[in-house]
Amino acid sequence: MRAAGGQNPERHELAARPKEPGAPRISLALQGGGAHGAFSWGVLDRLLEDGRIAIEAVSGTSAGALNAAALAAGFAKGGAAGARQALDRFWLSASEAARFSPFRRSLADRIAGRWNLDCSPRFLWLDLFSHLFSPYQTNPLNLQPLRDILAGQIDIEAVRACEAIRLFVTATNVRTGRPRVFGRDDISLDALLASACLPHLFQAVEIDGDPYWDGGYMGNPAIWPLIYNCQTADVVLVQINPLIREGVPRTPSEIDNRMNEIAFNSSLMHEMRAIAFVQRLLEEGGMTEPFAARYKNMRIHMIGDEEGMKALGVASKANAELAFLEHLKAVGRACAGRWLEATIGDIGVRSSVDVRGTFL
Q1: Which of 64, 66, 167, 318 has a Cα at 20 to 30 A from 223?
Q2: What are the C-alpha distances in Å from 280 to residues 78, 145, 360?
Q3: pTM of structure
């Protein structure tokens, strides 16, 4: 499988792929989605607790990048148990920082048990305000509350020292429109902030003289680093952005929600199309040696709750209430548990997702 998105395949040679004994190995691809990233927190917690699968690498974007960094830092210090503790601390810290946030559910939403903020007057006001004024006007000092959370909860030196798990974080270069994938040695607080930088809310994050926005625009998450830099051919996508939504959006919030989903799934669709194309060539003998050996027949798996996430509007991505985060964690744990029982036998053998049927 050659790199997608205009990357130079000559710069990303396939890793050697010897058959290794012990637990089957996977790479994880973690999508971004604000507070919805707590679903991935639950998935990671369950996989780490189970211990039957070894994690070789993680590619993350936005909230997925923050999950990946917390996992790597914790793993470097205390293995799987340390990673679980680090993830717990990160999300609890994020909730604590948002305890006095003006973006709260309305009384009607609380009574009805809804997690969305669509009826929150303050959220609706901010949404309108952010489309009238840029963060360069409203936040000239470029204050970044997330920086303090990251600095307090994620040990960047530990992330860089984590040799057991490869880490890839994607951000979007505003100047070139291309994705930049930060490897373990390049990880910094700025790289994590860049990966989660929503342009209507925060000023672009400057790194090496270039401005960066949220990585979801060009890789949510980027799959190609897992193809060219990992031994395993098994990639597990932790999906938090619904792929399909029936009906036609009619209200402004419904339209914005669906536009957001399509935009942040587009790069993933393109990469999966390329993976499916190579899968078909290899399976049907469309390439002969020595050319076939240059390509990896990827095995794709997916953990997600498509129907549950459809019920959550885009506004709920700003809901950092502890009860909501813990709800999403519980849902993620349950989904990962079901996936393990149904799919662990497919790891190293076959895809458990029909890539063509799901993404094309």
Answers
A1: 318
A2: 41, 46, 13
A3: 0.88
